[in-house]
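note to self: dont lose this again. the chain is below, predicted strucutre after it. 283 aa total, dont forget to put it in the shared folder this time
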Amino acid sequence: MNVLFNRQTAALLALFFFLDPVLAGFDAKTAAAVDAAIVGEHRGAEAKARDQYRHPREVLDFMGFRSDMTVLEIWPGDGWYTQVLAHALKDEGKLYAAQYDANGPFVFQREMFGKFLVMLSENPDIYRNVTVTYMDLPYQLDLAPKASLDMAVTFRNTHNWVEPFFGGGKYAVLPFAAMYDALRPGGILGVVDHRWLDTATEDPMSMNGYISVERTINLAEQAGFKFVGESDILRNPKDTRDHPNGVWTLPPTWALGDKDRDKYAAIGESDRFVLKFEKPSDQ
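---
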């Protein structure tokens, strides 16, 4: 009897520990809101084609997203995730989108900012609860009112903050500190970026677009965050990280154009980490 009990218990425990934490599941309202956002007509075919790599439902589930939250998305770029977040939050939540400065120093920033505003204007009902703010390192950091957020998220931006274009790491902790200040005690931070595996060989300036989990955790913890966990939702073992133009060689950027396109299409988008942090509840 004891042998049978022990084997059954071991099997159940093994199942429990191998389950990915994303399987915890949304509440019913959030599930419906996120699913409606993902299939919405406001998202074009090109955006939806990336779902197979970016898994927005699973990522948001792991982070603990709810459709009644007040959320900040920092540097949303052209708004790929904004399309999902804003739609899911439009009835009961709110979204702050901390964009590039409208007068930013780089042409791509100004162009992306313009496209983002056009996107918002084309679907005013979907984006009715979006407030656009700005982040420009190191001085413009008023992302959202202090202690107003339930969640902050940033997708593939941490590597930018250690690049020479944005201070070479000198200011890299500032976005984390600004998000920390804007989150209420107990609030959640979710971070996604291109994963570099070996800290010993990591480019300190991330000029290849990759950054390590360890380095990212260190930056967040410097700002006061507590590390909660990591998910392998976006792991891609096909990504060798030795591409001639860094991560931008891969889709969707295709830095080499048509050269070796089939090779990089077979790899798909980069290997990425998904990290979850919490602002301590006593802060």
